[in-house]
Amino acid sequence: MKLMVSFSRKKVSEPIIARAVMDTGVLINVERARIEPTEGDVLIDVPDESARTVCMKMRELGATVSVLRDAIIRDEDECVDCGACISVCPQEAFSFDSDWKLSLDQPRCVLCGRCIQACPHGALSLQK
After folding, report:
1. What is the pLDDT, as a whole number, of residue 29?
2. CB of 43 within 8 A of CB of 4?
3. Band of the pLDDT at 71, cuts 50, 70, 90?
4. Which domain holds residue 7?
5. Which of 40, 57, 67, 94 is least buried, going by the fewest C-beta atoms within 10 A?
């Protein structure tokens, strides 16, 4: 399961991912990170059965956690299956199925946003 972990240096004073791994024993895969001097956001992937435990630990350590079930939302009415998103996705999350319809493999997505910028019809957006 994908989790977006946001934190500020005022609330978090230790390496929260390392502490969460040590305290829970759950292996955490960091898929994307944006770290600034005063705050940061980290997209992590954890086993579904451990998501609640990791969420609780991260919150205990001072972070804000959002569960991302479908990170990228595709508007079926706007999408014309042009494939512009396929060419820019670094994770190869988009592909064409056997009927040449656009297919999205959500677990591969790391929320880089390139597909959203490339979509000429505005058919893609981030989960709120």
Report:
1. 93
2. yes
3. confident
4. 2-68
5. 67
What count of residues does the chain have?
Answer: 128
Statement: residue 82 has pLDDT above 70 = yes
Residue with the bigger pLDDT between 90 and 111: it is 90
- The answer to whether residues 27 and 57 belong to one domain is yes
DSSP for 60-82 reads HTT-EEEEESSSEEE-TTT----
The Cα-based distances of 81 to 18, 90, 116, 124 in angstroms read 41, 18, 14, 12
pLDDT mean over 100-120: 89
Terminal-residue alpha carbon distance, the chain: 17
Residue 44 has pLDDT above 80, yes or no: yes
Contact by Cβ (8 Å): 92, 108: yes
pLDDT of 128 = 64
Residues 40, 83, single domain; the answer is no
CA distance linking residue 85 with residue 104, whole number of Å: 10
From residue 39, give the alpha-carbon distance in Å to each of 20, 42, 85. Answer: 18, 10, 30
